[in-house]
């Protein structure tokens, strides 16, 4: 193992554990020195044991387009990603700023729309966004909080600078993998957790429950909280059931709920029981067939009206998807300046908006160098990585852009940072991103230490999504 680590080559990328000269970064030195005592065979055994343990705990995901089976193992790599205390303090401050601005944007855009009237964001950009829902106009969520749970995707470039890659305010998933990855790592390598000052992550369910309970009317002595899931065939069903179990609340589907006497009620063996807070993991379009998609069997007829009347709280609030639009994303720095009067702490990736003539012309001429993304796709779908594309693929995307310019953005190809990763019988660098989870409780915003580090397991790949061959690593945030 010592030989493999000694020969590990960070190449020209920013490596999260090693400096350019191959020496460990100061905050990673304890881990690297400890790993030197392991053989490659021992590391492989630990990796296999950890993967089996995760599978036995039910840590799986679904790929809708794969007909070989519903459940798949979420690949896990045994070598963790470490974030220094200094880096984390910077990220935490920047994320809180960003969430405050996004929340103010949502409250504004579904009310007075001052940011549009003042010319900071074109009206057409808002109204053409797939996630902008007119039925949500005038809604006043409890304490003015729209985005109670956010997963913000971050990346690090070759120079070590952090960038926000995208915002996820609708129903961000992945926190269950964070918690289970840590549980496995602590049982596999208990000694290293005794010697390194690693911030814990296992209290997330209690923080989430506190966030949800905070939405209930103060006069209720024992408010009822439920997790609303689309059901067992949803790709994140494991997470829905896991979080419900960890919080000690009911996991329900739409068919378990009904609106009676102006309130949301849960069917139980003892009759109907009022529900006060819903942590919904069902997309906006499906939560109420009377308001959105009439064919939906996943939601509850009348739910939105009960919500509008303030008789039930929903987290996240419906309509938050407008902020996930990748065209809207380009305007978040302007939102921070407009609503907060501050300069953005975290930078966006430079973004070309294909609906603008000048940007579109540049994108079409440089498809071989850029990453093109559809405004409302996720999971690595609807994307062209120019440097990895064929001429035919570029021609196809050029036509897509011409046909629907509002639906596409483009960004430069970043050299994502890497982390040493166990690949068969050797250690190789693989590209990673990071999704921290942020809980918004009104006056208080809690950024959970760490987050989901997704790793592109395919050599040279920049796509970290599990549905595209990616896996995950435990993320260690160090204490000061």
Automatic annotation (TrEMBL):
Q: Which SUPFAM superfamilies did the record assign? A: Glutathione synthetase ATP-binding domain-like (SSF56059)
For this protein, the record's InterPro entries field holds: ATP-dep_Glu-Cys_Ligase-2, CP_ATPgrasp_2, UCP005522
| Highest taxon above the source species | Bacteria
The Circularly permuted ATP-grasp type domain covers: 80-456
Q: What is this protein called?
A: Circularly permuted ATP-grasp type 2 domain-containing protein
- Look up and give the organism this protein is from: Hydrococcus rivularis NIES-593
